[in-house]
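Q: what does this look like with 2-phosphoglycolic acid bound?
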Amino acid sequence: MGRKLVAGNWKMNGTNADLKEIEALGIAWAAPRVDIVICPPATLLSRMAFSLGGQPIRVGGQDCHAKESGAHTGDISAEMLKDAGARYVILGHSERRADHGESDDMVRAKAEAAHKTGLTAIICLGESLAQREASDTLEVVGGQLAASLPDGATAANTVVAYEPIWAIGTGKVPSLEQIAEVHGALRAGLKERFGEEAEGIRLLYGGSVKPDNAAEIFGVENVDGALVGGASLKSTDFSPIISALESSL
Ligand code: PGA
């Protein structure tokens, strides 16, 4: 099992003035016992990576194109992210699946591009409220897992984030039993496909993770960390979540 991981997704938030949050995190977490990643908007990647210098906190992109280069106005390739200092990239976030019509096939192609470049892909999946209420959750996330992960996924190059769409940015969180059920099913699905390697593929929970609920979520079996949106924007919110993950070790 790799180190536990907490990743912050800044989404479409943050300008140069917010780099102070990263400086504060860098000071607070000079020698963390868990992996820490921040995924800022692409405009800040390079400066953030530079300001973190040799510190252990890593940066990541929020999306990449499946192609290496070419006529794709507004898009960014995995190679460009890497060149800007990224080590990770979030792929298939539900906001991209909804806003940009990203399918499982597209997410898998992007993950292949990320892997080829040496980036670790954080592949997101999760059910809508309607799917949850229709008791389709396990079928939906199982299908997303099968179709969004490339055959070359390993513990080193792939992280899976379970993010129920209805829990993102809403303050609503599934029960610990519901999280355990989905994470258990995801682990089983990974084992069936990748064998022993599946033990090391980290499974993050995401959706309204906050300082006051992080510890109980990190106590759930098969939860190897969190993907955090809103609470990653301020170091004073993000740090207690990192502390909670360290305390769970
Ligand atoms: P949230 O977002 O923590 O603000 O709910 C999580 C995510 O979308 O990754």
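DSSP finds ten helices and eight strands in the chain. The radius of gyration is 17 Å.
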